[in-house]
Amino acid sequence: MSELKEKLKAQIIEQLNIEDMQVADIDDDVQLFNENGLGLDSIDALELIVLLDSQYGIKIENPAEGRMIFESINTLAAYIEKNS
Amino acid sequence: MKINTHSYLSQLGAAVNGKERYSFQENDNWTKELYVHLKLDYPKFHKMDGLSKMALLAVELIAEALPNQEITEEGLHLVFSNAGSSSDFDAKFINSYTELNMPSPSLFVYTLPNIVTGELAIKYKWYGESCFFIQKKFNASFFEEQLKFAFQKGASYCLCAWVEDHPLKTKECFVFLVENSTNLSLTEEVEKIYKQYKNE
Amino acid sequence: MPIGKNNNLGSMRNVYLKYGTLISPIGNGINAHFNAFITNTSGLNWVDSIGFNKENLPLGKISIPENNSLQFMLNSACEALIKEHTSDRLNSPKTCFIISSTKADLSQLPNDTFEPLRTILKAHFPTSNEPIIISNACISGVVALNLAAQYIQSERYDDSFVIGIDAISDFVIYGFQSLFALSDEMCQPFDKTRKGINLGEACGIIHLTSRKEKAFCVEYVSGKTSNDANHISGPSRTGEGLFRAVSNALKEAEISATDIDFISAHGTGTIFNDDMESIAFNRLGMQGIPLNSMKGYFGHTLGAAGVIETLICMLSMEHSMLFKSLGFDEQGTPESLNILSENQEKKCQYVLKTASGFGGGNAVLILKSVR
User: Minimal Cα distance from A21: which residue of B?
Assistant: First the structure.
């Protein structure tokens, strides 16, 4: 699980062009879409849907579902474990 | 109307009011190099297309000359132009669905040239009029014509830009801030400044 | 606009809008469109396996033997102009062409995607001025009309032909799919169950001129743009840019919000856009004014939308007939609006056309019937 989390952080940094952060800067429970967290926005959320599909073969049909899944690295990793 | 301040960026370097401000070490990622040099803290920058990155940097270079927020909020109008539209990101988006088999939303949202004016509006809280024109090449008299209209429409200042990010053209950004003062023509002056920047 | 008002120009000439032409899946020419709107007939049709994952989608796609609908539409539209106007006028140094388009001809990449449009115009109007090209996402058409009006007012040109044109391509279909913005059903602007947009393609031309010729005329009153300064792809939650653009246009026209008799809204059919418009129009006190979206007839035609929807506004003004907002059944926005659920006979003095789009742009214009 922790291996998956580290991999996810690296993928998120690359896919979303978060150039001023390293894997070590992202805590497992930091709020991804909070201004005080990673500060991601609605386009990033759609790009995460693309990431889940292309890297993990998981399809999310409704972006509204994504909101809970993408809350933090913890929730995202748990969702991938459950669905892949 | 009168030119207040201007700046120019290309892979060779950055200049303000005709004076070199910075010359790039790297050729690949020179927009990031300037971002770091200017000590900007705007993480969204890294997600932008080349047009938005260049325009944002060129405006940061003349930021001190911008009038205060009360004036810029609606009194600053934007007149932007290029020849190649958003072709760099158009090609990247096409690649995302033809080669990577997954259309990328974050590329698609930059496949419009006027996104650059939107990014500037967001960063500086500019709510005023703006327009993006596609022209065959840089055309100083066209800018002057649009400036006249903007000042007739009530603008106090106009930010003009020629910003190009196209695989077959010079990647560059030229911005000039114009204020509504005297009624002199500035086509020749604008032409001259642009040519000097390009060493023509 | 009343003479002698509001700016450094001193007195300005009046500007009148005249029908150019309109080519869409509904048909060819203005009359074909009047007949379709009066009978609430949509140009949207199901197209098989057109989505990225081979989904069937409703689209406003014209059926022609040629591949390149962009070139077909522009050639047909130019031919229609040649039938209506003298060669002297079309090629005059006092005439300008303004093109409004978002994607032009993507098949040209990496070469200039807008060049084919210039080439076609040059072929039909060999000595005309170089066309002015505006690319401001979905507000392009309204911005182009506002600029054309300034050119006539300032006497730089006597005639201006505003050409709104965009074609459907895999590029825009896949792009809007990637944003989850496409509906897999017929679009339902402002409705409770709306799911997103349907794409369309069209070419419309409006002729702006200083000459008032007929007994009935549509006069240009004012127009403004404003940016949301909020997000590049999502509309402002408070409708800020639309609110500012409409307020400023009303101010320039020296009329009040409730003087407007009809609003032709943007109404794309996405949750966020239509919610935003309901909020902005309520902030403006315009919730009681009859309003429609024409996306249920044409789909979203992007750079053409502002021009072709203004053409339909001109029909509403001339025939004193407001058209049903096709696809609307039940209120589904946070603030209520007076959406036209049937055609309605109404004499309109002032009409407001609005558009909002990517890049946070909002553009509006106000027209007036002169009898």
Answer: B43
